[in-house]
């Protein structure tokens, strides 16, 4: 203990590693989690609480963050979804007398009639598919974006991508197979 002042304790290696893990998680995924939580809850305080709870659960389950398992974002988003659903159920079981949420305060629905669970599920699905698309080749990603996200026909996609229609059909077929594999590798639908 030479060199330490009285009352100082030796730094814990695990604590500094945990702090670094939390910093990196927040740096890499905090903005995405915050956006989903805020869009789902429409309440900054509840969104912040949900993100903190999600990161806390990640800290408690470090195996889910193992790089050999791939990108941890889908796991974090599923965990955020679960946190939001749990929070919504808790609020539904103990309704507040006064609410800052003028739309759907009693029914647990958001504007448009969607539930918190629906918004959370849709956000998780969107982030998961986006992460899986990043794993595809540029050609496969482009043809799926044109045909599925932009709703173009095979002919329109062929004109946009400047390839024959037969090539678009073939790429869509193989791109969907590759997307399915990427999702399975990420632990979705396996």
From TrEMBL:
Keyword Membrane among UniProt keywords: no
Recorded superkingdom: Bacteria
Protein keywords: DNA-binding, Sigma factor, Transcription, Transcription regulation
Domain RNA polymerase sigma-70 region as annotated: residue spans: 25-92, 132-180
Sequence intervals crossing the membrane: none
Record-linked Pfam families: Sigma70_r2, Sigma70_r4
Family designation: Belongs to the sigma-70 factor family. ECF subfamily.
Protein name in the entry: Sigma-70 family RNA polymerase sigma factor
Species the sequence originates in: Actinomycetospora atypica
Lineage of producing organism: Bacteria, Bacillati, Actinomycetota, Actinomycetes, Pseudonocardiales
